[in-house]
Amino acid sequence: LAKHNVALQRMVAVAQEAIANCADLSGLTLADGQPEQTIVWQEGDVWCRARADWLASDFSLLIDYKTTDNAEPGTWPRTMANLQGDVQAAWYLRALTAAGRIHPEATFVFLAQEIEPPYACSFVSLAPAALWLARRKCEYALSIWRECLASGRWPSYSSKVHFADPLPWDQAAFEEEVQWGAQ
């Protein structure tokens, strides 16, 4: 919306400054690559696709941009797990390899930016052990996809009854209400 334009322009400026000041990005700027790059490849009989938010011209870096309430890097392992961001990183690096565009030191980096001023940014990538696990997850997902394509069966959730445990904060809030309501 037009009313958000000034804030969005400020977010862009802060993100560009953060990229320029990130020593690990070796002085890259957004001009050193292209946004919204789609890579399509085939693995056996399965067609695959990845769409990078930004891809360096030399294929050394993929950046995925995420807006968030909290860009503090310490919170991102859990955030990445919830978003399956580890799988995304491994899949996009796999796309570069499949397209014959792999750079020997290709890296996938999340640029997380807060949506409130001062629009703080952080950069998060996968440690080698996390990338190894994510690659295994990609292989597993691809094997399930192949099996479903071949069999025409698409499994869903279990048909048994699942039981939801009370959430600790919900239980604590109720206990507090009972305690204060009794006085």
List the helices and strands and how they pair.
Layout: H1 5-21, E1 33-43, E2 46-56, E3 61-68, H2 76-83, H3 85-98, E4 107-114, E5 121-125, H4 128-151, H5 168-181
Parallel strand pairs: 3-4
Antiparallel strand pairs: 1-2, 2-3, 4-5
Helix pairs in contact: 3-4
Structural account:
This protein is of the alpha+beta class and 183 residues long. It has five helices and five strands; from the N terminus they run αβββααββαα. The protein has helices at residues 5-21, 76-83, 85-98, 128-151, 168-181, and strands at residues 33-43, 46-56, 61-68, 107-114, 121-125. Strands 1-2-3-4-5 form a five-stranded mixed β-sheet. The longest helix is centred in the C-terminal third of the chain and has 24 residues, at 128-151.
Keywords:
183 residues; alpha+beta; 5-stranded mixed β-sheet; 5 strands
pLDDT < 50 runs, ≥5 residues = none
**Cross-sheet strand order for the largest sheet:** 1-2-3-4-5
Tell the overall outline: flat
Number of helices, where a helix is a run of at least 4 consecutive DSSP H or I residues = 5
Strand content: 15-25%
Distance between the termini: 50 Å
Radius of gyration: 21 Å
* Subunit arrangement of the protein: single chain
Structural class: alpha+beta
Report the major sheet.
5 strands, mixed
The proportion of residues forming helix, as a percent range, comes to 40-55%
Count all strands and give the number: 5
Order of helices and strands: HEEEHHEEHH
| Residue-averaged pLDDT | 92
